[in-house]
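Reopening this ticket.

The earlier resolution said the output was attached, but the attachment link was broken on my side. Pasting everything inline this time so it's all in one place.
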Amino acid sequence: MKSRISLLLLTLLLSSCFENDYLEDLPITEIEIPFTIKKVEMTDIEFSTYMADSIITSNKTSFLLGNYPDPIRGHVIAEPYFQLELTTLNQSFEDYHVLDSLVLSLQLEDTHYDTAFRFPLSVYAVTEEITPKDDKDNIYNFETFARGRGPLVTVEKQLYPTDDSLSITLPYEFANNLWLQAKGSSSIFNTTDDFREALQGLSLSADGTSPLMSFSKESKLIFFYHNDEDMEPGVMDYQISIGDFSNCFTHMEVDHTSTPFSNLISYDVLDASESQDLAFSDELSGTSVRVLINGLNEIGDVPYEYYISEANLYIPIKKGTYNSTFNTLAQKIDVYIQSENKKTKSYLTTTTLNSFDEIFQEATYYTIPVTDFIEEQVVGSETERTLLLDIYPEESFTTSYMVVGENSDRYKTRLEITIIPLN
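Inline output:
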């Protein structure tokens, strides 16, 4: 628009620095420019929750294990499946190499929820190849692969704050059967494919209430053995890690039955009025917060030309839905514009938590810059006014979530728009 261009040229002219001395002798002419700034605050904003039908869980550098009934996000059950990859090839052992034990060592990355629980942990042998089905590139949360009728072992476990790993000793009969196949020229340790013919993979489950635990692909199987011919045999080991190129994914179930979001349906929208005036976003269940801003067309009806200088959307986090120790709040979100048919979305911005009120939990909120989006809605031809707030996808699982809801009139959901009239 011409007025906007004129304003920018005038600003450049007024901010220029003249170095020629003769200009100082010219008469000064004062230019009166009526320059005002108007701030508009809009609070007619509606929330809802949108849920996808599935999420990809094979594209992570970690896997998730746990069993926890959260009153907000739902009962989460996470069971990982993973292959193993030889780090040393063409390895074979002699008859005098005697197995002592086989240990699954899980390298802990992170935990979510209280770790005080003792819980049964079961290890299963997977009996089919862990690979994407139907020529797909990814494995999804709803998928499973065949595993033994019963677990190889079930042990009671508890995590402590100082733990960086969790170890399970597997049954000797199972371990020795693999060990015997590692001897001679046809050793299963010659190649990774040879080993996977003997053991397709492993799967884990937490059979009682447990925290959500994230383990890295550096987790490994360790064969401990000794040389029976030595007078004083020392303990040696042979390690097989999951590795970066092994297929690894997490089967995930999230039951919303006993939560405010019990009526959630895949590919559908649950209005906040039907979920205790709350909306939530959670990577583990594929849910996103939808934001509908009403009344934007009223801004475009003013009888003058203007420039939208800034627009910020303030999204409060409902108090009582997080804490700073066991149930931490998501720190970063992706913001998208969702199409009217809910089938496509375009990226708008990424933002981090702007304010954290640990004590009263009233002034905890995100500030989302939405200037371009608002300008398109007000002065452009776009009519879709729905924003989608997703948990930012990290390389590891983001076990934190966010629940949007009002806390007080002071920290209410609002859109603040700064407008500069041009005439």
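Reporter confirms the inline version is readable. Residues 38-53+266-421 form a domain with the Jelly Rolls fold (CATH 2.60.120). The chain has four helices and 24 strands.
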